[in-house]
Specification:
Length: 323
């Protein structure tokens, strides 16, 4: 498992990763993008911003970087950064397949990405990822697996993924939606020749939506590395959008609301890597402070009262505009 490299890291931020969804393409659903990025978001500008973030993250101890085929040019930006820094060999690189980016570098596109978990899409996107990341790819994940996805039952796909795993690439999956727990448990049952197919799971888990927690603990106990995404709920747990109890505890701890939200996830014993989705180096530095935020049980109990019903959470997320 490539994540064994993180066990050798001594920095407190080694288990915070950097996801590139917010900077690999001009449009995304995070709140406050009008403040985070200029109105003119050229590929050259976002390439420079991505490299600034990667440099800052690496310098501050981050060792996992996460991309996807549907994150616009994220894989290409990450590839350029790795190629320009050949001495950087202690990082873990993950990407995802299953969504095709269709926005043509526009924020007002009617459709930004199209989902397909078929073998043909895997073959095409694996080739595309390979051309960019080559042997630096450590983890390849099925993007946004759901309980009804054919990827859970397609044995031809499983065989192809197992071939990739035999070549040294860990196979994982990410989840989305109100039924994440069911998806995780179904994926734990997927085997090829009697061996579990998946080595990682990446799921949404945050103070507003904790529904996947028990299933993620089960995945951890089964030997999977758990990666947590959207720990600040696409900006709903950061800055002015943060609910009052979170802001209060941030003031008590001398941290920002986003750092507290991340710290509340980092303290889960099953959380292997928690992703920052920062779009600026200032956001990144604030996020990374989560590694040293010490939350007491009384504070965790108060934060636990912020939870929403999964259906309501995902309905609200679906309403977030691409901007």
């Amino acid at each position: 498992m490539p994540f064994a490299r993180l066990k050798a890291a001594t920095t407190p931020t080694a288990h915070i990763g950097l996801g590139l969804a917010a900077v690999g393409r001009p449009g995304y659903i995070n709140l406050g993008r009008d403040r985070d990025l200029p109105a003119e978001r050229t590929p050259e500008m976002l390439l420079e911003r991505t490299h600034e973030l990667l440099d800052a993250a690496y310098a501050q101890g981050v060792r996992y970087f996460d991309a996807a085929r549907s994150y616009g040019r994220a894989e290409a930006f990450l590839s350029d950064w790795l190629r320009a820094r050949p001495a950087v060999q202690d990082v873990v690189i993950g990407s995802k397949w299953g969504y095709t980016y269709t926005a043509d570098w526009r924020t007002d596109a009617e459709v930004h990405e199209v989902k397909d978990h078929g073998v043909a899409t895997f073959e095409r996107q694996r080739t595309e990822t390979g051309m960019l990341l080559g042997e630096r790819l450590d983890l390849y994940q099925i993007h946004s697996l759901t309980a009804g996805s054919p990827a859970l039952t397609d044995t031809a796909l499983h065989a192809r993924l197992a071939e990739l795993a035999a070549g040294g690439v860990t196979i994982g999956f990410s989840t989305s939606g109100p039924d994440q727990a069911d998806t995780i448990r179904a994926a734990l049952d997927v085997t090829v020749d009697g061996s579990p197919l998946f080595g990682t799971v990446q799921s949404t888990y945050n103070l507003l939506d904790t529904a996947a927690g028990d299933a993620l603990e089960e995945a951890h106990e089964a030997g999977l590395t758990v990666i947590v995404k959207e720990a600040v709920a696409n900006g709903r747990l950061a800055g002015p959008a943060a609910p009052a109890p979170l802001r209060d505890i941030a003031e008590e701890t001398g941290a920002t609301p986003d750092a507290v939200a991340l710290a509340a996830v980092l303290c889960r014993p099953w959380a292997g890597v928690v992703l920052s989705g920062a779009a600026t180096t200032a956001q990144l530095s604030a996020n990374l402070h989560a590694a040293v935020v010490d939350l007491g049980q009384e504070q965790l109990d108060r934060l636990g009262e912020l939870g929403e019903e999964p259906a309501a959470y995902w309905q609200q997320r679906a309403k977030l505009p691409w901007s």
